[in-house]
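Hi Q.,

Before the meeting this afternoon, I wanted you to have the copper (II) ion prediction in hand. No need to reply - just skim if you have a minute. The sequence and ligand are here:
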Amino acid sequence: MPDQLTSTAWMDRRGFLIGAGAAGMALGTGLGTAYTQIAGTADHTLRIAPLRLELAPGRVIDTFAYNGTVPGPVLRLREGRQVSIDIRNDTDVDDIVHWHGLYVPAQADGAMEEGSPMVERGRTQRYTFTAKPTGTRWYHSHDVAGKDLTRSLYSGMYGFLIVEPAGDPGRYDQEVLLAAHHWDGSWVSMQDLRQGPPPDNGLEVLYKSASFNDKMLGHGEPIRVREGQRVLFRLLNASPTQNITLALPGHRFTVVALDGNPVPSQRAVDTLFLAPAERADVIVEMNRPGVWILGPTRDEDRNMGLGVVVEYANRRGEPQWSPAPNSPWDYTIFGDARPVPAPDRRIELLFEKVPGGRGGYNRWTLNGKSWPDTNPLYTTEPGKRYRLAMTNKSGDNHPVHLHRHSFEVTKVGDKPTAGVMKDTVNMTRFSTVEIDFVADDPGPSLLHCHHQDHQDEGFMGMMTYL
Ligand SMILES: [Cu+2]
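Predicted structure with the ligand bound:
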């Protein structure tokens, strides 16, 4: 029982729990009365360890994962209930786990920049927090990867975290969880491979493999369905840097939630776009019997292994793929026209690239500065409403993530909208987006691009509270 060694934890003055391994237990005997000793087993344990992941016969990835699986175990938490999760680090590198899309104290959020402690190698650390808000959330490593394409979001260290509402409507017959990931990356100069990026552009990551969950397309079990079923897909783009656009030939996706939050206007779409870190909950009516490929519209991504076979009962044969109708993706089609309250303050953010040149790494700036010089990026007062007016002055996509808060998308380009609540908003190349939020979770909160390489090369700032 591995937990026996590590089930001792201490509550610090700010009300979150820090567990410790054997060394910490020895230290613990010397701690004063300010620390309350907590005994007992955590509700969940995640063990970080190396994993040889077989995506397909002969395609093995040496990576790191939680509890020996990719994705890690699905954590299903009950809304409003306190949960304790032990993270045990059985690797030789310190790491940290971030609870993406949840309202948790900064010290338990799993970002060292906000003050959360690293989970040291060989140690165990306990996180406790109250699970909210409801919906499809996820957890993942929030370590710095830098040039190391085996660490953090490049690795298998991610999993679904679903906060279940007290009363789940559950109008579906089957639930399927799919997390997309790209594997086996290397740094390349795109100019050497294809025309396109300007010649001063720096290194980018190119991948050799991709998967839904732990298998490449054509390997692993198909998703078995019956005609007439309503299937809920919870889709997560857990790729370190790649956008994906998904289709299921002959079927449409009815989008019911984005980033776990119900959308005001449920729309059926032919293709579904997800930037890194984004989630979509979609219902598919199974009304086209056959054997199909649910996969990315880019041939290159399917050839790399991204996709899964959907097989109707009593149907056999080669899985079919056909190009999807062209349907542009736009957050505003899921919004509505309700009036948006005027913000107490409008904050302009400009994102720019400092091209690395051939063989160099691109750098990123927010209002002219790179992390850590962007701390603080802006300061908020509890209870006030803010509008971030963001401009992407670069030819790259940036899924911008705000920690510990949900925000409302209020303008995409010059299109106003309301009601679409997210924690990550993708900014397409040379675009503007406005998001509104209420400063309702005091504590330092990171704002950063979810591309691992952009985040590591300066695209990060800190929102603070007065
Ligand atoms: Cu970015």
